[in-house]
Amino acid sequence: MRTFVDGSAPWVWFNNYVAVITSPTFGPALLNTAVFTLVSIVFQFSIGLALAVFFYRSFRLSGVLRALFLVPWLLPLLVSASTWSWMLNSDSGVINSFLNAVGLPSVNWLTSPHWALVAVLIANIWIGIPFNLVIMYSGLQNIPADVYEAASIDGANGWQRFWRITFPLLRPVSAITILLGLVYTLKVFDIIWIMTRGGPGSSSTTFAIWAYQLGFGSTLPDFSPAAAVGNLLIVIAVVFGLVYIRVQRRMDLS
Hints:
This protein is an all-alpha fold. The chain has one domain: MetI-like fold, CATH 1.10.3720.10. The protein is 72% helix and 0% strand. It has helices spanning 2-6, 15-21, 26-56, 62-68, 71-74, 77-87, 94-101, 116-141, 145-153, 158-169, 171-186, 190-195, 207-216, 223-253. It is flat. The mean pLDDT is 86.
């Protein structure tokens, strides 16, 4: 740090980015980041939308059940990740106990290279569903009831009302929900670090985990490549933000 203060720090141009991109960890980390982000968003949005449509129909205890679905979102990530680590424990976890009870073999959720990323995906999807539920439910409340009444008079069934009315009118809300989910998921660190620490090997290492490992995960931390990985995350988030703005402008003009 002293070299940055006194001005004697060497100018390395893009050497840190070259070192990061040519690293053997770059490929797996990029793939894990893409899979973790896309799968999380698809399931969080789909389940959140389905629950929002379900709760939009008023019924007894709907408010209580909707409030219970907010619990994963309100809990600290440390608590949620620790709970999932206990549930997915290979020896004493309740998930494996249930699998054994129905005659299925146990799964090494947190220690197997094939299942570690799946384990953190399950936890992250569970945590992100309430956010999508709340936003989509708010969007549903802004759709005029007269539109549904007119569709019912024309003979539209529930599935047709969803695809012809609900989903198109929710596009602006859906776009911002997906964008916020994307930016949040790209920087997820707590869940993965507590559950698997990016392992075993690099099977669940994302860019956020890799940046931390480079900067703080060794006795001789190197902040330069860690900052390079962090900057790559920023660039990815900015690109998707620009894509959202472009799509939103087209929707406004149409």
